[in-house]
């Protein structure tokens, strides 16, 4: 018998279906996760930023504004549908020239650019091999760069996060 979750788009136990982002990206979320407040300490105009698992661009669009004309944001996701919606949103927001979308493979990001900042917001729990994932993030991060990882308590306990 086929898994009933497959009918809803849950094909892979690790990846949230693209359509779920319609629930995550809404005006109420700004009260919990205000992008500018969260990201301001890490972002400087002119930075190159890697937004891993950006969904439909909830953080990508504000990041693109924050990096200014000389900066750029690389939005890397394994789902082409996410990147397609993200590109449309970046165009509507007038920042598409600062946003580069990158389709990853499940086993590797495949990004070959050195970055100043990496954002991994509510997505690490979806990565099958987290050790390799963090190794790859470290390899693209500039020496004085920063990484911000945030995970939802519903998926990751404090003990797991601290590991």
The parts where pLDDT drops under 50 for at least 5 residues are 1-12
The rough form would be described as globular
Q: The CATH topology is what?
A: Rossmann fold
* Largest sheet properties: 5 strands, parallel
What order do the SSEs take from the amino end to the carboxyl end, as H and E? HHHEHEHEEHEH
CATH architecture: 3-Layer(aba) Sandwich
CATH class: Alpha Beta
Mean pLDDT: 81
Helix content: 25-40%
Question: Can you tag this structure with a few keywords?
Answer:
163 residues; alpha/beta; Rossmann fold; five-stranded parallel sheet; 7 helices; 20% strand; globular; disordered N terminus
Descriptive account of the structure:
By secondary structure, this protein is α/β, with parallel strands linked by helices. It has one domain (45-162): Rossmann fold (3-Layer(aba) Sandwich). It has seven helices and five strands, in the order αααβαβαββαβα. α6 (130-140) links the parallel β4 (115-121) and β5 (141-150). The longest helix has 14 residues, at 80-93. It is globular and about 40 Å long. The termini are far apart. The model is unreliable at 1-12 (pLDDT under 50).
Task: Give the secondary structure arrangement, pairings included.
Layout: H1 21-24, H2 29-32, H3 35-39, E1 48-52, H4 60-67, E2 72-77, H5 80-93, E3 99-103, E4 115-121, H6 130-140, E5 141-150, H7 158-162
Parallel strand pairs: 1-2, 1-4, 2-3, 4-5
Could you give a short description of this structure?
The chain is an alpha/beta fold and 163 residues long. 31% of the residues lie in helices and 20% in strands. It has a single domain (45-162), classed as Rossmann fold (3-Layer(aba) Sandwich).
